[in-house]
Design brief:
Family: Belongs to the KXD1 family.
Pfam families: KxDL
Number of helices: 3
Organism: Mesorhabditis belari
Keywords: Coiled coil
Oligomer: single chain
Strand content: under 5%
Protein name: KxDL domain-containing protein
Length: 137
């Protein structure tokens, strides 16, 4: 901001009376006389440095956002694939357990005495195992 001084009065105007000033112009002229050019230049340079830093930071944040977006997309694809695998495993397990129930029912119908004996033996082993686990604690 270059200022030209005309006389000992204001910065932009020649010597004039207070009545020639509007209140806004008087405030501007008063402020201009309070600050020298070196200070204004220093403020402008500081603002330019801040602007460069903010632009650099903005660029870094944009890069980070782009990387995060790519990783999110990759994670979504992996998650969808894992979900599909889990759903297929669930279907497979349901099929397997259904086949086991059918097989057990067929054995229970075909060999009821042997099936009951084996079932009782398995229940006893299950109880003994549970007691063994409880005793270890």
């Amino acid at each position: 901001m270059a200022s030209t001084s005309h006389g000992s009065g204001s910065v932009f105007r020649g010597e004039s009376s207070e009545s020639d000033f509007s209140p806004d112009q008087h405030l501007i002229d008063t402020l201009l006389t309070q600050v020298d050019n070196e200070t204004v230049d220093a403020i402008i340079e500081t603002q330019k440095q801040s602007l460069r830093r903010f632009e650099k930071t903005n660029e870094m944040m944009s890069n980070c956002n782009a990387l995060s977006e790519k990783r999110l997309e990759r994670a979504k694809k992996e998650m969808a694939a894992h979900k599909e695998m889990i759903m297929q495993m669930k279907v497979d397990l349901e099929f397997t357990f259904r086949r086991i129930r059918i097989f057990k029912n067929a054995l229970a119908t075909k060999y009821p005495v042997i099936y009951k004996e084996v079932e009782m033996e398995m229940k006893k082993e299950g109880k003994l195992k549970m007691k063994g686990v409880d005793d270890d604690e």
